């Protein structure tokens, strides 16, 4: 399936694939929503429940749970453990958002004030830690293999965040460093989600491996497109202010490519750009740079490679949906 119109979300992409799959996923995603809140609800501590569910209640694409559910379509097992895996994947993702917002001093996420803004950094960090603890409980229920996958992914997430914070060391290719950061910090969790879905559903090992690679590749494409949107999209479209990476002094792939075209940009992004007017000027400069088109080409390359990984998988509606998501990733920045 090739997307010929711009669809608004990953869920809309799946809805366009077929009614039976869409209905099944919609039902299970509704169950995931309920379980996210029940998993985080502490009857004896109203404040803990409120702070832990703050970003859950704000909404989100639920892209990672959907990847779990699509991966599970390739196996014969029932839905209980699959739902556990879907909830687990979103808890880990949202935990990273709590922590990211503290490091970025972000005021808005998903159109609402962040936990660090509503309360303080300590509460936001602890809320994120609580989500990780609850996710670990679910991972333990899924067995040692699933728990090890979760722990390895957490290690990659932390490694990617540290590498991004420190930046490339002298003599290290900055673009290669940027790609490694994206692989660890972003793609690893998407790969974990689709792999975990297939594993918990009892899919064939070869299918699990192919989906793992697919997840890594589409995760890279998705992050590159997010980095482009941080430059090109409006606050209403993003649910947060554009130019977040510039404000934090993070040089993303499209910025690296813009620098290669115009080295003078390097000086402008060498330090965090806190001033709104200065950041708007740099955003305008980046929007006119050929570096954005090169970044789009890189996203397209990863998305196509992800789609290629699906060729030998069973020809079921979930495979069509996963391929359509590759098209969605490459069209959302146009």
TrEMBL record:
<keyword id="KW-0479">Metal-binding</keyword>
<dbReference type="GO" id="GO:0000010">
    <property type="term" value="F:heptaprenyl diphosphate synthase activity"/>
</dbReference>
<keyword id="KW-0460">Magnesium</keyword>
<dbReference type="InterPro" id="IPR008949">
    <property type="entry name" value="Isoprenoid_synthase_dom_sf"/>
</dbReference>
<comment type="similarity">
    <text>Belongs to the FPP/GGPP synthase family.</text>
</comment>
<protein>
    <submittedName>
        <fullName>Heptaprenyl diphosphate synthase</fullName>
        <ecNumber>2.5.1.30</ecNumber>
    </submittedName>
</protein>
<keyword id="KW-0808">Transferase</keyword>
<dbReference type="Pfam" id="PF00348">
    <property type="entry name" value="polyprenyl_synt"/>
</dbReference>
<dbReference type="InterPro" id="IPR000092">
    <property type="entry name" value="Polyprenyl_synt"/>
</dbReference>
<dbReference type="InterPro" id="IPR033749">
    <property type="entry name" value="Polyprenyl_synt_CS"/>
</dbReference>
């Amino acid at each position: 399936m090739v997307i010929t119109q711009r669809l608004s979300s990953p869920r809309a992409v799946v809805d366009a694939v077929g009614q039976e799959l869409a209905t099944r996923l919609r039902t299970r995603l509704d169950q995931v929503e309920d379980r996210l809140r029940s998993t985080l609800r502490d009857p004896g501590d109203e404040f803990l429940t409120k702070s832990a569910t703050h970003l859950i209640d704000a909404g989100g694409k639920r892209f990672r749970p959907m990847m779990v559910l699509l991966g599970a379509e390739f196996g014969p097992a029932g839905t209980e453990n699959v739902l556990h895996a879907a909830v687990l994947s979103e808890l880990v993702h949202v935990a990273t958002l709590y922590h990211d917002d503290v490091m970025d001093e972000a005021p808005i996420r998903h159109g609402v004030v962040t936990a660090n803004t509503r309360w303080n950094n300590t509460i936001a960090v602890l809320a994120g830690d609580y989500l990780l603890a609850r996710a670990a409980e679910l991972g333990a229920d899924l067995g040692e293999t699933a728990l090890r996958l979760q722990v390895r992914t957490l290690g990659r997430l932390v490694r990617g965040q540290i590498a991004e914070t420190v930046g490339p060391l002298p003599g290290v290719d900055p673009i290669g460093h940027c790609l490694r950061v994206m692989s660890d910090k972003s793609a690893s969790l998407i790969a974990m989600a689709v792999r975990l879905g297939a594993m918990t559903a009892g899919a064939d090992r070869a299918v699990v491996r192919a989906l793992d690679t697919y997840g890594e590749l589409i995760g890279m494409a998705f992050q590159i497109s997010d980095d482009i949107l941080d430059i090109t999209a409006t606050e209403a479209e993003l649910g947060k202010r554009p130019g977040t990476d510039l404000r934090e002094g993070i040089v993303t792939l499209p910025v690296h490519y813009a620098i290669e075209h115009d080295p003078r940009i390097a000086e402008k992004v060498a330090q965090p750009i806190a001033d709104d007017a200065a950041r708007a000027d740099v955003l305008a400069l980046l929007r006119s740079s050929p570096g954005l088109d090169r970044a789009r080409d890189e996203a397209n390359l990863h998305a196509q490679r992800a789609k290629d990984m699906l060729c030998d998988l069973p020809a079921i509606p979930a495979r069509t949906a996963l391929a359509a998501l590759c098209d969605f990733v490459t069209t959302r920045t146009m």
